[in-house]
Amino acid sequence: MKDKLNKLLDPDISREEEDQIFEDILKQKNDNDLRVKWKKILANDYDIQRSKNGKRKTTSSSKYIKIFLAAAACISLIVTLQLLSTPSIDSNAMAQQYLDEQEILHPGASKGSIEEDQNRILAIQAFNSKKYQQSVKHFQNLRIANEEDQYYYGLALLLNQQYTEAIQKFEENNLNNNRFKQELNWYQSLAYILNKQNEKAKIQLKKIRNTDWKYKDAQQFLKKLNEE
Questions:
Q1: Cα–Cα dist 213/125, whole Å
Q2: What is the DSSP letter of 59?
Q3: DSSP alpha helices (H): ranges in the chain?
Q4: 3-state secondary structure of 127
Q5: Which of 55, 79, 169, 209 has the fewest CB atoms below 10 angstroms from its CB?
Q6: 192 touches 170 (CB < 8 A)
Q7: How many angstroms separate the CA atoms of 139 and 227, rounded?
Q8: pTM of the shown model
Q9: Residue 86 pLDDT > 50, yes or no?
């Protein structure tokens, strides 16, 4: 550095030599500043520093950090491999998963004193308590069943895993029931899938229009069925 400063005092120095000396001085200054900066970062953030004999020292805490980071990396790799190797579920499992995750409840009805009203109340109570077999029996005992009764009767059959009977009930309801038309199309599709009648399920799912309830879910099921 001293030689370079003395060279700057030479009256015969060229412009190119002068520029080079200034560039070297600035570079050395920046290198020193950068070295000091990283020395502080390593000491403060990572507890890594040089001892008097020039060897690098690390405290036990930094060692634990390294062990923790290595373990975290291994766990992340294992989880990623598991996700990549896990096979996707089929349409039947998708349909069952949907029914398991959704809370399907009857809105309820007013109390009555006549026999069919009492059966309706018991059917609704059993349905909302997830006692679907009991609910089916009470719906069967209704002397006069309205549209809502028939719809929830079919749902009770479906949720009780009586898929063939549920399909039959949904088909009957679909012919005469306009109030629950969109719901019937959706649940009848699920019943077909769970009953392993995939071709009929496709036909039923295609009846669900883009303005209907569960249209997006219907498209996902159609895609899955076409892939199988």
A1: 26
A2: -
A3: 2-8, 15-45, 60-85, 91-101, 115-128, 132-140, 147-159, 163-176, 181-194, 198-205, 215-227
A4: helix
A5: 55
A6: no
A7: 38
A8: 0.61
A9: no
